[in-house]
Design goal:
With about 325 residues, the protein is an alpha/beta fold. The chain has one domain: Rossmann fold (3-Layer(aba) Sandwich), CATH 3.40.50. The protein has an 8-stranded mixed beta sheet with strand order 1-2-4-3-5-6-7-8, sandwiched between helices. Strand 7, helix 11 and strand 8 form a beta-alpha-beta unit. Helix 1 packs across helix 6, helix 3 packs across helix 4 and helix 7 crosses helix 8. The protein is globular. The relative contact order is 0.15.
Length: about 325
């Protein structure tokens, strides 16, 4: 009996270690350049191919849009042209490994501080010293860290459902605010296990098997107040990244490395942001609930604070016209509508 158990354990170990390498896993997808938008281009930042979308005159005041977790430049489709027509050089980029940017690499930034540093180097590459920064969700956290570390490079700051809470705040009970800044993907012990190559390959195989184009769309529905807001065109735009070579490995690493708890950003540091600030929230946001925006407003009482009823986590999409008007009013130092 004991010998049978030993043999079974040995067999399971062999399957665990060798099994994933016996399953063919050829590259799937197309090259990112084949999916680029008209006028989109790629730059090299820290050795990573980074996709950039830009509208407006290069001599106009620069305005940088930072997307959220799992999103891309596509999420700013309703802002690019209107803001450019209003007189701004509007720039959005896919943070590696999102969207059409590099999927793998030793220098891919995952933590908020490395993301802020990467953003600074994107601006360097584009020869921009100072800009207005608009960050949505996780992009809002990046904007916060950027404003603290590089205050001289910030003209104004806009948090759009920003996933930013002080790391020295006590846990929030109720309202979901305690989820912000915590692990956004896998539990830490699972992330650690995936550093073991055979398990990482099993994870990649699982993603290829179970993550289909409609997988992200079904999750995304809960980000909107009205789930029917998602049209086939929006679903296609958000799933575009799942067609790029390396998407499966990139998604695995995103889930593995999406902890925003590693680097502190205190309440005092956030309160010290000196640039003009605007805080925008959907009152029906369940992903980053309004309690988070209220806390940011407590820390930055001078900020322009705008909320939208019957709007979820994506106010720049769900109520694009009102959002654009309020943003432009803030940029022009007028009162929002």
């Amino acid at each position: 009996m004991r010998r049978w158990i030993v043999r079974l354990l040995v067999l399971l170990l062999v399957v665990l270690l060798a099994g994933p390498y016996l399953i063919p896993m050829p590259a799937v997808g197309v090259e990112a350049a084949a999916l680029a938008d008209a006028g989109g281009y790629f730059i090299d930042v820290d050795g990573l191919s980074t996709y950039v979308l830009e509208r407006g005159d290069t001599d106009s005041p620069p305005l940088l849009l930072l997307h959220g977790w799992g999103a891309s430049t596509f999420s700013w489709r309703e802002q690019m042209t209107p803001l450019a027509e209003a007189g701004y050089r509007v720039i959005a980029f896919d943070r590696p490994p999102y969207g059409l940017s590099a999927k793998t690499g030793d220098t891919i930034p995952y933590t908020p501080l490395t993301l802020a540093d990467f953003t600074a180097r994107v601006l360097d590459k584009l020869e921009i010293q100072k800009a207005v920064l608009v960050g949505h969700s996780q992009g809002g956290a990046v904007v916060g860290y950027f404003a603290v570390k590089y205050p001289e490079r910030v003209e104004k700051v806009v948090f759009v459902s920003g996933a930013l809470r002080p790391t020295d705040d006590p846990p929030v009970t109720g309202g979901g605010g305690n989820r912000v800044g915590a692990q956004m993907g896998m539990p830490p012990f699972v992330s650690g296990l995936l550093n073991f190559p055979p398990l990482a390959r099993w994870g990649q195989l699982a993603i290829r098997t179970f993550v289909q184009p409609d997988f992200g769309t079904n999750i995304l529905r809960s980000a909107y107040h009205d789930p029917n807001f998602i049209t086939p065109a929006i679903a296609e735009g958000y799933s575009r990244a799942l067609r790029v070579v390396g998407w499966d490995e990139a998604l695995l690493r995103q889930l593995q490395n999406s902890s925003f708890t590693a680097e502190p950003l205190t309440a005092a540091q956030i309160s010290a942001i000196a640039a003009p600030v605007m805080i925008v929230w959907g009152e029906s946001d369940t992903w980053v609930p309004p309690i988070v925006g209220e806390r940011l407003h407590e820390l930055l009482p001078q900020a322009v604070y705008v909320t939208y009823p019957q709007v979820g986590h994506l106010p720049h999409e769900e109520t694009a016209a009102a959002f654009n008007a309020d943003l432009l009013a803030f940029l022009e130092d007028a009162s929002p509508s």
